[in-house]
Design goal:
Blueprint (H helix, E strand, L loop, with lengths): L1 E4 L3 E4 L4 E5 L13 H10 L7 E7 L7 E7 L5 E6 H7 L5
Antiparallel strand pairs: 1-2, 3-4, 4-5, 5-6
Length: 95
């Protein structure tokens, strides 16, 4: 599988480590009244979709960047690759 890194171009997937669902970017608010339940769900509950899915990948054998890869889990086709920091900023996170 080839991942088209936004900065470095096409790279072999062997350079990357799959780090889970991209929903991990959306960390719960620790000040919330439901923080304990929210962090439990954040840490332990995951979807396992068949089809298109946004995933976090870490470029371990490269520039050590974090990417959000939109990948079809059935065919391994990749439709979009973005820097995770850009996705976090779009979702309202400052860092």
């Amino acid at each position: 599988m080839i991942i088209d890194h936004p900065l470095l171009g096409p790279r072999d997937a062997a350079e990357f480590t799959y780090m889970g669902d991209a929903k991990l970017i959306d960390r719960p608010d620790w000040k919330s009244g439901t923080a304990a339940r929210d962090f439990y769900e954040y840490g332990y509950l995951r979807d396992n979709p068949a089809g298109w899915h946004e995933e976090l990948w870490f470029h371990e054998a490269g520039d050590r960047s974090w990417l959000v890869v939109t990948r079809n889990t059935l065919t391994h086709e990749i439709s979009k690759v973005e820097m995770a920091r850009d996705v976090a900023r779009k979702r309202g996170r400052s860092t």
